[in-house]
């Protein structure tokens, strides 16, 4: 058997051609920061300055941060690199899969690698009779008897086996190192990871780490139905579109093992099939309770929009598993989270208005925002309020935006909204002052804030507004709308706590 390997050297003309293919593909059209990052590190590569690329250079020259940028406290470069790495992986899993040259951004580095596409040896290379292959590959050993030749053959087999095993351990080590990496895209020390089951449905065989660094295992414990993949869809309301680009559909059953206790179950959906309202009913049961019917397009307000459905007080059945049964032909699901709970009332929601994680002084985990619509993000690490837990105010969403937060129907909630003015006012070096930014906040048609002005309310650089007894919709949603009166509304963080 003979194998031929393509040349690993790639000419600059081919490199530039592949770079232009990515830039013109449209995969970065909604992410100007990612495009600017890619163009900058590429030009440094072509100019022979790749070894001089540092976080500071990228931040100031590509991402337009001030010259006072501090990479120790501002993680924007790492956030952008993480997002660009995902986009490149997505591109070469779909549109660019057959390109002769692939561009990679290795984890932990800011240097591009242009490599020729290699054959998938793991899928095609088989050695059904290792001794005969090795005997033909090894040169004759002068004066060697058959027994001595067998010794060398055996030694060769042992070396191959050892190298294969070493490769497995190296791959596992790299995966664990990535999972343990601390930063914006990974949990801070103290984040609780055990006992939570995060499961992606579909045909993927790859462990996935989300924007918070949390691992999602591949599908198991299920029978029936059909796996689907709708790669390349831009999913609104999430920093992890990969979770919603594949799933399982049809009639199927899952038996997910958990330890004894009380759990909250959250199902995640995004309709990527182009369905219309009332065209597809997802009907399912949890632990043989009465069936729930869901029109994903109707509840999300359209296609390619992430939504969640939450169920509390779930205990494993007598076989030690949680039963999940999809009973309609039109059913589908993308992912499931099963979280241990201290009560029947469900888990709190704590989220930042950006792709970051934070462990506050009381040991509470704050995760990246989910289920958002509209608006834009920005980062204000240089103007944080000088108070405890100031990192809650590092990111903000601004514009005309809203959130659809899944909670438990019939439960009442305490909603806390965290604000800090990072633009207007002399303290921020910006124009204006009190009265420069005024907006309203509504939840499920009820006014939470009217003519709200952060600068008028804040003390010590921030404002936290708490609303009690907030009731979700009949479908189990807290629909938070931020509506401008004068200039754009903003939000830095949101906390939702069950009451009673």
Overview of this structure, please?
The protein has about 500 residues and is an alpha+beta fold. The protein folds into four domains: about 10-115; about 125-180, no CATH class; about 195-340, Jelly Rolls (Sandwich); about 350-500, Galactose-binding lectin (Jelly Rolls). Helix content is about 25%, strand content about 30%. It contains ten helices and 28 strands. It has helices at about 10-25, 30-45, 55-60, 75-95, 120-125, 130-135, 145-180, 240-245, 295-300, 455; strands spanning about 100-105, 115, 195-200, 210, 215, 220-230, 245-255, 265-270, 280-285, 290-295, 305-315, 320-325, 330-335, 335-340, 350, 360, 365-370, 370-375, 375-380, 395-400, 400-405, 410-420, 440-445, 445-450, 465-470, 475-485, 490, 495-500. Strands 6, 7, 9, 10, 12 and 13 form a six-stranded antiparallel sheet that branches. It has a six-stranded mixed sheet with strand order 16-17-15-28-22-25, with no helix packed on it. A five-stranded antiparallel sheet has the order 18-21-26-23-24. A hairpin with an 8-residue loop joins strand 1 (about 100-105) and strand 2 (about 115). The longest helix is centred in the N-terminal third of the chain and has 35 residues, at about 145-180. It is globular, with a radius of gyration of 26 Å.
C-alpha geometry: globular
Helix content: 10-25%
| CA-based gyration radius | 26 Å
Largest sheet: 6 strands, antiparallel
Query: Structural class, judged by helices and strands?
Result: alpha+beta
Oligomer: single chain
DSSP strand content: 25-35%
The count of domains is: 4
